[in-house]
Amino acid sequence: MTRGGLIARVVATLGGLGGLRRHRENAQAELHQISGPANRKFDAVRSGEVAVRGNERARLAEEVPPPELDETPDPRAELWVALLLIAAAIAFAGFVVFYVVSEDTHLLGLSLGLGLVLAGVAAALAGKRVVIQEKTTDEYTDYGDREERREVANHLVEGKVGVTRRKLLFSSLAAVGAALGAATVVPVASLGPRVGEKVYETPWSAGKKVVDERGEPIALDTLSPGEFITGFPEGASKEEIGSALMIVRLETDELELPADRADSAPGGYVAYSKICTHAGCAVSLFRYPTFDETQPGPALVCPCHYSTFNPADGGKVLFGPAGRPLPQLPLRAGADGSLEAAGGFYEPIGPSYGGIREGPEKAPL
Questions:
Q1: CATH assignment of 210-341, given 2.102.10.10, 3.40.50.300, 1.10.1040.50, 2.60.40.1190?
Q2: Residue 224, Ramachandran bin (φ over 0: left; ψ between -120 and 50: alpha; else beta)
Q3: What pLDDT is stored for residue 296 in this prediction?
Q4: If residue 57 lies in a helix (H) or strand (E), which one and from where to where?
Q5: Cβ atoms within 10 A of the Cβ of 362, count?
Q6: Taking 50 as the threshold, does the pLDDT of residue 157 lie above it?
Q7: d(CA 365, CA 362)
Q8: Where in the chain is the domain with CATH 2.102.10.10?
Q9: Residue 233: helix, strand or coil by DSSP?
């Protein structure tokens, strides 16, 4: 090959390479920049990505339809919820009735507890079977048609979620609320002392026989000095607050009773209410000296807060938080030698509070 032919072939090769390079550059320019209307240019690659995402969303939307609320009511569940609420309301109302007409705390606790259990079961059943439990996932967006959102809000406010007997359910719920409110408010009436005439009306009266726990009469020779026994009125209930007595026998020379009570302790027997005047506990301890030189005198002691009373001096307080003397019951000996009441208590029985520290009369009640 001549020198001229070699040079011509090299030039042709270089020209072809240059043309190929220019073709690639033009192709890339056409790929990334495409002329549009009004000579606007946009990124074809990014637009393609957006188009792909839009197509993907459209495809997902077609494959996964939007969730729909099941508005099919469950009448049986709604009826059970209403019945449970009505039963709970009756139980709460029963608490109010029992509180007024009965003092049995078992009935009060049973009615209140039953009402709470029924109301809880009704709430659980309503949450599981009446209110629709719909769990969905969807892509969150801040946009949306205003009218559509308003329709959805109105739809939810109207309660179209399976509850078709709203009046019955709401009425039952209102009844439960009213009964529970009454059961909560009524016990407020018991705040503070309001015992009425219970502290004045006791089963003791003149001539009432004194018996022991077995119902046997207590005679003048039943006890020896320094001994005590619990006494009750013959034929009366032992459960009444004024029934139980603390009866002790002292030596007659130990007695220091007021002058108006000198005849109330036959044979050294003195009787006092068993209910402590501090907090209403049972006075159940009797202290009696066995060695007069060093030990204190006789005393009735309440084991709850250690209020101590002097049985030889009308039940006066010797020690402790009690606010007044232990009420004394006057005694006398019957025709058969057994003890009987000479009248009612000198003071009102029970714990002390405002207006009850002193009896209405000085004579036995």
A1: 2.102.10.10
A2: beta
A3: 81
A4: helix 44-63
A5: 9
A6: yes
A7: 8
A8: 210-341
A9: strand
Whole-structure pTM value: 0.51
Give the model's confidence band at 143: pLDDT under 50 very low, under 70 low, under 90 confident, else very high. Answer: low
The tens digit of pLDDT for each residue in 283-295 reads 989 988 877 666 7
Token pair for 251: 């030596």
Cα gap 33→31, rounded to integer Å? 6
> Whose CA is closest to 246, among 267, 266, 274?
274
The angle at the Cα of 101, spanning 96 to 104, to the nearest 5 degrees, equals 85
H helix or E strand, kind and range, residue 28? helix 3-32
β strands within the chain, DSSP E: 33-35, 41-43, 210-211, 228-233, 245-249, 269-273, 285-287, 299-301, 308-310, 316-319, 328-329, 331-333, 339-341
Please report the pLDDT score of residue 232 as a whole number.
94
Q: Looking at the chain, how many residues does it have?
A: 365
